[in-house]
Design goal:
Helix content is about 50%, strand content about 20%. Strands 1, 2, 3, 4, 5, 6, 7, 8, 9 and 10 form a 10-stranded mixed β-sheet that branches. The longest helix is centred in the last third of the chain and has 32 residues. Bound molecules: uridine-5'-diphosphate and magnesium ion. The site of magnesium ion has 5 residues, from loops.
């Protein structure tokens, strides 16, 4: 066969590893263009093959429109858009499901995670690490309340969870194809991805970084969503709260026994006795409270079993742009995802 340098070059280019970047976006019209510029700068510097998968999580502003125009001008860009807002963790999951890369990097759209760290992540991956996660050493421009509660949360969940979850990490991380394939086989609904990645194991390492302030726009994580996310994290990584119910049961029974002994001693050996309705009401209320708390904790788990048992798709995709037709079904059959409309760019 005659030597064909161009064919060889073509083969070499295809065997070169592909890096995928997954960016969840919800109402990010103010930042998305700048994010794309900074990502592209960093990735072209890396001199390898790359793709950027933007997941529009049912934005109500011009985010999808901007993403479509970015995609039309750049063949490395893929866009998935959800039929409605499914939440940050679902957007990240969809990106992971559809990314084709040998390494997949998750990054927020608001430039709080510096894209420039991607180079160091890729270097660690080339050294042989399967997961390289960014660890926040400082957080600029976030309220004292947010920083303090986040610190507390990571320490608390580590006391409860059987799997150690690295302190002060977000979803900004690189994962090897091996880890991504395992994640794609984890069908749970309450997705606490940073915990799920810790559970997977393999070789993991941390890269410290300074978390910048948001480039523009406001946080899409109000207190309500933060509390729900923290609860998901704890309940999907620990059953210790259920044990708390047993502990509280023993404690209240112990208190009751002490009360009975006290009443008996007074009655039998002194001329006093316990009287009045105050004690009665207090003990009834106390017991009622403890029982309701225990019911609530059990209810949280039962509710999760209920929504898990419905086996609904995790997210619905309204539009997929820039995916190659032959790779699409492979990504889809991993999980019951529904694509309602498809427009293929490349
Ligand atoms: N996000 C999303 N869906 C949501 C909320 C947030 O895809 O329902 C995205 C958002 O666009 C951003 C990332 O998740 O890229 C992190 O959100 P944000 O920066 O608002 O959270 P914070 O950094 O304030 O905790
Ligand atoms: Mg942010």
């Amino acid at each position: 066969m005659p030597y064909s340098p161009s064919l060889d070059q073509h083969r070499a280019a295809l065997s070169e590893p592909l890096i995928s970047i997954v960016v969840p976006c919800f109402n990010e019209e103010a930042v998305i263009q700048e994010t794309h510029r900074r990502l592209t700068d960093t990735l072209t510097d890396l001199e390898g093959r790359y793709e950027i998968v933007y997941v529009d999580d049912g934005s109500r502003d011009r985010t999808l429109y901007i993403l479509e125009s970015i995609q039309a001008a750049d063949e490395t860009v893929r866009v998935l858009s959800f039929s409605r807002n499914f939440g940050h963790q679902m957007a990240v999951s969809a990106g992971i499901d559809h990314a084709q890369g040998d390494a997949v990097i998750l990054i927020d759209a608001d430039l709080q995670d510096p894209p420039e760290l991607i180079r160091a992540m890729v270097e660690k991956w080339r050294e042989g690490y399967d997961v390289v996660y960014g660890q926040r050493h400082s957080r600029e421009g976030e309220s004292y309340f947010k920083v303090a509660t986040a610190r507390l949360f990571y320490r608390f969940i580590n006391r409860l969870s059987d799997v150690p979850i690295p302190l002060d990490t977000g979803d900004f991380r690189l994962m090897s194809r091996q880890v991504v394939n395992v994640l794609k086989r984890m069908p749970e609904r309450d997705r606490f991805i940073r915990g799920m990645v810790s559970w997977v194991g393999y070789r993991q390492c941390a890269l410290p970084y300074e978390r910048a302030r948001r480039y523009a726009g406001v946080s899409k994580y109000p207190l309500r969503k933060m509390v729900a996310f923290a609860t998901d994290g704890i309940l999907s990584f620990s059953i210790k709260p259920l044990r708390l119910a047993t502990t509280m049961g023993f404690l209240t029974s112990g208190l009751a026994v002490l009360g009975i002994l006290y009443a008996l001693v007074l009655r039998l050996w002194t001329s006093y006795w316990v009287s009045g309705w105050t004690l009665l009401i207090i003990s009834v209320l106390f017991l009622g409270g403890v029982q309701l708390i225990c019911l609530g904790i059990i209810g949280e788990y039962v509710g999760r079993i209920y929504s898990e048992s419905k086996r609904r798709p995790l997210y619905l995709i309204g539009e997929a742009l820039g995916f190659k037709t032959d790779t699409e079904p492979a990504a889809l059959d991993q999980r019951p995802t529904v694509i309602m409309r498809n427009r293929y760019g490349t």
